[in-house]
Design goal:
With about 180 residues, the chain is mainly beta. About 10% of the residues lie in helices and about 40% in strands. Strands 3, 4, 5, 6, 7, 8, 9, 10, 11 and 12 form a 10-stranded mixed β-sheet that branches. Strand 9 and strand 10 form a beta hairpin. It starts with a helix and ends with a strand.
Length: about 180
């Protein structure tokens, strides 16, 4: 992570936790950037697609966090959906545990400001240093971590063992 941060000026804390400013200046000081986008226009916001896959399966290690490309979203659509560009990132799904809802290589839009677990919504989470995309369900002081693919068993974790990184609010799929 440190090498990626040095190369592209990213804040290591932001890449690993989604907290704090996204970028650092040339002295290493974190910059307060309101929206982590490549460019803006009156109609479109360009959101970063990170070269980081989140597992819909066995878990992905957070080791390739850099911006691969940006994708344009209509500013008015984001506004209608109640989304704020500064809190949004795009990631790619790896694996089949969330099929049929999400497939391997789907692109997901994650709202990092929405971390409060509401049952049966899909979130990006970190457990033991690995990132997953899973459906969550509250279960007392625990959270049930569910896969949409019935071949994968659910897990139950105490809520303190799961870091919710954001809620999946949209996905895109390449047609084969």
């Amino acid at each position: 992570v440190g090498n990626v941060c040095e190369r592209d000026g990213s804040s290591e804390r932001w890449l690993l936790t989604g907290e704090g400013p996204m970028n650092r200046d040339e002295t290493g000081r974190e910059l307060a950037i309101h929206e982590p986008t490549a460019s803006y226009s009156a109609e479109f916001v360009h959101l970063p697609l990170f070269d980081l896959e989140v597992a819909a399966g066995d878990g992905a290690v957070l080791d390739r966090e850099n911006v691969a490309v940006t994708l344009a979203f209509r500013r008015d659509w984001l506004h209608r959906e109640g989304l704020h560009a500064h809190a949004l990132v795009l990631l790619q799904v790896a694996g089949d545990s969330m099929e049929p809802s999400l497939r391997d290589r789907d692109v997901i839009l994650v709202d990092r400001s929405d971390r409060a677990v509401r049952s049966d919504r899909v979130y990006v989470i970190r457990v033991d240093g690995e990132a997953f995309v899973k459906r969550l369900r509250r279960d007392g002081d625990s959270i049930r971590v569910l896969s949409d693919n019935q071949a994968y068993l659910p897990w139950l974790r105490h809520r303190d063992e799961i870091a919710v990184l954001g809620r999946v609010v949209w996905f895109g799929r390449k047609m084969l």
